[in-house]
Amino acid sequence: ERLLNNYECANVERVLAAESLVRALPPHLNRCFFLSTGSEAIEAALRLMKRKTGKFEILTFEGGFHGRTAGAASAGGLSGPKRLYGPTLPGIIRAPYPNPYRDPLGLCGGAPRFDRYFRMLDDIVAANSTGSLAGVLVEPYQGAAGFVFPPRGWLTRLVEWAHSRGMLVTLDEVQSSYGRTGRMWAQQHENLDIDIMTIGKAIGCGVPVSAVAAREEIFACLRKGEMSSTLGGNPLASAAVVAVLEIYQMEPLVENSAKMGAYMKKRLQAIAERCPYLGDVRGMGLVMGLEFVRNKKTREPAPELIRPIIDNCANSGLLVGSVGAYGNVIRVAPPLVISREEADESLSIMAGVLKRIKLP
Description:
The chain has helices at 12-24, 38-53, 70-75, 111-128, 154-164, 216-219, 235-250, 253-274, 306-315, 340-356; strands spanning 31-35, 57-61, 92-95, 133-138, 168-173, 196-199, 210-214, 278-284, 287-292, 321-323, 329-332. It has ten helices and eleven strands. Helix content is 37%, strand content 15%.
């Protein structure tokens, strides 16, 4: 009956949304600010890191995707969002993101090899930084690059490395939050002591809304009115935030993600053993990547298989999409409400398609 919005004034729905979101967040992230898109949340996080530290350089990662606005695209590590839109913004230092399936330098083993990785990171910073590093922007897994999941423990070590050098850490959970990985927040898998988190996509379940969450002392660096968003926290979007969180409290969506994700991953790994081209099945919860290769020993990417797989699956009633730096990864990210019967049907279709598929 009533829909009023003024970004300079609070509204009841925005207050309720903020209270609901903060209750759901990891305890150390006790403040939030609403915006409209994931890219806008990334821009806000970049501003916060620079404003809090008084420095301007941001360490990001090859293969990263953070959005298509100027700052977010500049921070990303894929060519697509930046092609024909240069020059990108200065102050970005980019490092390799550990990929256990493609690790020619041997950086993805256990903790001893992490030592080697972080010595390399120190070298990258020494060669490229002007001494003004404000923070790190990182994803818990790289979706656009092919659902690349770093080895367990690497993110914890990265946070420790950054904090020991006076840098803030922003975790981009625009894609990974709200149960996608089998936990409400992907950071909970390692209980990461991050400073800032960006949230989007599932927070509104189709309604345009995003948020940046941070420690209270980080938001305290801002002057009154220094951060704003014309439609951020509008009543409709705020009501959606509250409604979505209420559904997550009432329904076992996160638990279903963990349970069905484990089931589907096991089935997909069995399919991979029978398929000569399915080189890797990786992921957690209901987010996985299927990487296709010409040869499992050489791991040469096989992007030419992807379109036939997509088309054959669609003709059989299963919609899938592709991602990946090499264009050779099928995305597995079904709705969190997927049932055992629906999973079995989709897996049967995929298995049937892969039996018929051949290299051109």
